[in-house]
Amino acid sequence: MSPMKPLVIVTPFHESQIQDAIYCSKKSGIQIRVRSGGHDYEGLSYVSEVPFAIVDMRNLRSISIDTKDKTAWVETGATLGQLYYTIASKSRTLAFTAGVCPTVGVGGHMSGGGYGMLSRRHGIAADHIIDAKVIDVNGRILDRKSMGEDLFWAIRGGGGTSFGIVVAFKIELIVIPQTVTVFNVTRTLEQNATQLVHRWQYVADKIDENLLLRLFLRSFTSSRSGKRTIGAFFTSLYLGRVDDLLPIVQEKFPELGLVKEDCTEMPWIESVLFFAGFPRNTSLDVLTSRVPLVRPYFKGKSDYATEPIPEHGLKGIWKFLDEETENRAELQFSPYGGRLNDYSESEIPFPHRAGNIFMIHYVVSWDKPGKKESERHVNWIRKLYSYMAPYVSKSPRTAYFNYRDLDIGMNNERNTSFKQASVWGFKYFKINFRRLVRVKTEVDPSNFFRNEQSIPPLS
Ligand code: FDA
Predict the structure, then answer these.
(1) pLDDT tens digit string along 379-407?
(2) pTM for this prediction
(3) 110 touches 129 (CB < 8 A)
(4) Catalytic entry in 84, 85, 391, 403
(5) How many secondary structure helices (H) and strands (E) does the chain include?
């Protein structure tokens, strides 16, 4: 893309200013891009090739918690860190199930799904949205009742951006134990990482749903041997005490060799800091920062594994990781199963339920600017994605909408046919794409809210 600068950035403090922005954009024929946390992988909330305005929700970030009802209203300009911090300041046994990175925005994240460390026990963020406040193309402020169940369904996983501007979500909070247990165990190739990763695939989606055994894979220099190797980092959360965790892992995954000394007990909110990569004893206040922790240049892609990847397939991945030796390339295997299976594929637009063992997230990031540098890394991740085709879901080869990837297809600048958009639409939403198109046609037939991967209306 050769992006333009926005003509104007609107930072509303009040809903009426959003209504004004919609009115003015329509009148002057410019596009609107809505930004909550600005973490879109392809920058679609702040980059465009056509004249556009940004509506930046950062000032609409209030959070009100009702501990008695176990619910909260969260404005979409809030970040996940702000939400977690506010919940923890009111209660030690309430939490919310959403992503790991604290600077991710509520608006994009919850409307697109929201997977995190609590997801095997409690599902994704969008599963827990119980009401919403949305401003539609006509500037009307709608709640669940006035928007109707179709639109309310669409904005819980289908992405807010195609349908209007989401001002706030009402969510149901979840109950968690006062103490949880975390561990991060590393195994290298010399410590049988290949066999362990292979075995993990038979365990991770079936083990006790209170345990989320996440797996990160990257090339690194081992401090033990001083040599470059592949590291399998088993990064995990158990909703309970270490003495209950150990027998579960020792019975179902003894090969990991987990011992008590690997584990740390802590309140849930401290586990949020742990998984975000902050050192122990960091003040919880960091959760309120909006400054992202990521490198300037980045490309991500995703897949779903419905069958275990054989050992020879894993060895091929190691070769790819060895090519990106700057320690900035990673595969994240996020286990499914548990409560994620309790929802049907069509309950909300997020369709990745029973039958998925784990989600694969491919990530590469770099610091140096320049086209050549960028091409090198992007080509690497694209080649890896091609290599993975035999080992992942097929027809469609599914992808996670929140890990947005324009490689899988894009809208035309003007009208896009259902057939053309189906190429990427079915990957993200499977059969739900049809209903998303019907809702879009109903609520925004003129396709005012659009971007390179928005849901097109039927023309
Ligand atoms: P941003 O503001 O860029 O918006 C993303 C999209 O949503 C854009 O199309 C935008 O227009 C639209 N949008 C935003 N606010 C809206 C509103 N109020 N109304 C209507 N449309 C709106 N995901 C995950 O599931 N689990 C995880 O652990 C992580 N971790 C993670 C870490 C890092 C460092 C990054 C960069 C990303 C993730 N993600 C993630 C992915 C993340 O969920 C995804 O990028 C979200 O869309 C980001 O939401 P933001 O509001 O920050 O993005």
Answers:
(1) 999 999 999 999 999 999 999 999 999 99
(2) 0.97
(3) yes
(4) 403
(5) 12, 17
